[in-house]
Every structure is written in C-alpha cells, then in structure tokens.
Amino acid sequence: MPEHPVRLMIVDDHPVVRDGLRGMFDGLADITVVAEAADGHEALAQARSHRPDVVLMDLRMPGLDGVGAVERLHTDYPEIKVIVLTTYDTDGDVSRALAAGVAGYLLKDAPREDLHRAVRTVAAGGRVFAGAVTSRLADRLVTPSANRREPSARELEVLRLIAGGAGNKEVARTLLISETTVKTHLKHVYAKLGVDNRAAAVAVALSRRLI
C-alpha cells in the first residue's frame, strides 16, 4: 500500500454519474475521492485547490471539454495523472486524448474492480487502456508492411521503462545513456510503430505484446 491514499478527482457533467463513481471508491483504504467537477474549468480550479494524484475525466462536457482540460492539467500540473472515462471510443476521441497526454483511456462500462486497478496502476506510474481502445489503435496505427522493421531490443527496453512511468531523465539514468540517446530511441520507435507520441507507442506496443 502507498504511504498515503491515492487522491482521486472525478470530472463529469452528470451529477448521477459522479455520485455513482464516488460510491465505487467508498470504503477503500488506499484511494480517497478528494474533489469533483462538472466541467473542465471547474476541474482546473479543483486541481489547484486539492492537487489530486489521479483524475477520472469525462471527454464530452460543456464549456472546456475533457481534452482541453487534460491539456491544461498536463501543462500546469504535470504530476497529475489523467484517466479518460467515457462512453466514446472513436478514433478521433482516442487520438485527441492520447495527444493530450492521458495516462489511461477506459469506457464507462468498466467493472468496479477494473476502475480500482486502473487508478492504482496510473498512480504508480503505469498506463491503462481498455481492450477495445488498444485494438482500435492497433488497427488504425499499425499498417502491416514487409519493409517496416520491429523496434530493437534496446528501443523496447526504453519503451518498457516509459510504459512504467519513467521520464527521459530516469530512463537515461537507469540505462546509463544520455537523454539525447533516449530521445533518439523514442524517435525510432515512433517511426517503426507508426505513431507520433509516447502514449500511443506504449498502447500499440502493448496491443502487439512487444512489451
């Protein structure tokens, strides 16, 4: 168990959904709901006041939507991890969320235990994606090609550390290489997997069981 309970914020424009989600975490010793918000603007204000560790974020809300809120949170509070929790898994929604820097993407029909596990995983530095989302990513982003090379063992080693939540500095320190080399490895991984950011690279690598 972590030294202190994971501080969780729930963001959704429907009060009934927020109440239901809060109830799913009642009684857990290692996760505490510290704030709720009905839209992206309120989420930013609550984040400033309560500094949650993890946010469960709806995508489609009036005013500032989920992706806009994630982008602002990622810039202002990079230590806060965001899991999208939505009913939508279209290519456009998934792509925008990944580009914004989410640590997870789950659908609202996820079982209670899966939500608990996801919050714990993301709080520990990992990433979580619904099976349907990783399948869509693989179908959309990975085009079979006889000319496309697989990532090297070293590149996958870098990606595996990234998937575990490590930043470039930590990867460089762990592997005894420079940050520039880490960035080069990631650039090669993106090209080989047909993606343009680390979250998408991790999702595709997981879907293909490369890591």
UniProtKB/TrEMBL annotation:
One Pfam family cited in the UniProt record for this chain: Response_reg
Domain HTH luxR-type: 144-209
InterPro entries with a match to the protein in the record: CheY-like_superfamily (IPR011006), NreC/VraR/RcsB-like_REC (IPR058245), Sig_transdc_resp-reg_C-effctor (IPR016032), Sig_transdc_resp-reg_receiver (IPR001789), Tscrpt_reg_LuxR_C (IPR000792), WalR-like (IPR039420)
Boundaries of every Response regulatory domain copy: 7-123
MF annotations from Gene Ontology: DNA binding
Entry keyword set: DNA-binding, Phosphoprotein, Transcription, Transcription regulation
Entry-linked PANTHER family: TRANSCRIPTIONAL REGULATORY PROTEIN NARL-RELATED (PTHR43214:SF24), TWO-COMPONENT RESPONSE REGULATOR (PTHR43214)
Protein name: DNA-binding response regulator
Organism per entry: Sinosporangium siamense
